[in-house]
Write a structure and sequence with these properties.
Blueprint (H helix, E strand, L loop, with lengths): L2 H12 L5 H13 L1 H21 L7 H18 L9 H28 L4 H13 L3 E4 L2 E4 L5
Antiparallel strand pairs: 1-2
Helix pairs in contact: 1-2, 1-3, 2-3
Length: 151
């Protein structure tokens, strides 16, 4: 057996989950290989530690201390007033948030429509004058605006 094979089977070897020929091959390899003996010792130490941790008993008053800590934390949270616990403040804050949202929504939508050219007060005024007067060219201060007739 080589070191690679032993390392792959070291957990099964320690738990004695290998067949008789594999167990004998591992034991023969451990006689000749110091590195694999160290690995096997580390696995044995790990198993001992896990077993000791499984059998450890908590202190006799551990449950009482845990419950007391939870109760004191609950009492502290009840004593500390929350900013939103004031009775009249929640409706005011909700109304303010809704009003702010509506104003920002209208402002944002209007600016996007103006940027995209859908809403333009100058264009709207020119279109109104053109349709009222049936004129295709309008003089706007220092420049002439040529409008194409609508179909």
């Amino acid at each position: 057996m080589d070191c690679k094979t032993f390392k792959e089977q070291v957990w099964q070897y320690h738990e004695e989950a290998l067949g008789q020929p594999e167990m004998e091959a591992c034991e023969a390899h451990l006689v000749n290989c110091r590195d694999c003996r160290n690995i096997a010792a580390g696995v044995a130490h790990f198993h001992e530690y896990v077993e000791a941790a499984r059998q450890a008993e908590p202190g006799p008053f551990a449950a009482t201390r845990i419950v007391a800590a939870m109760e004191s934390a609950l009492e502290r949270s009840k004593k500390q007033p929350s900013f939103l616990s004031l009775p009249g403040l929640k409706p005011v804050l909700i109304s303010f948030a809704l009003l702010t949202g509506v104003i920002l929504g209208i402002t944002g939508a209007t600016s996007r429509l103006r940027q995209s050219g859908i809403i333009s007060t100058q264009d709207a005024n020119i279109q109104t004058m053109r349709s009222d007067l049936f004129i295709t060219d309008l003089l706007d201060e220092d420049r002439i605006l040529t409008l194409t007739p609508q179909k």
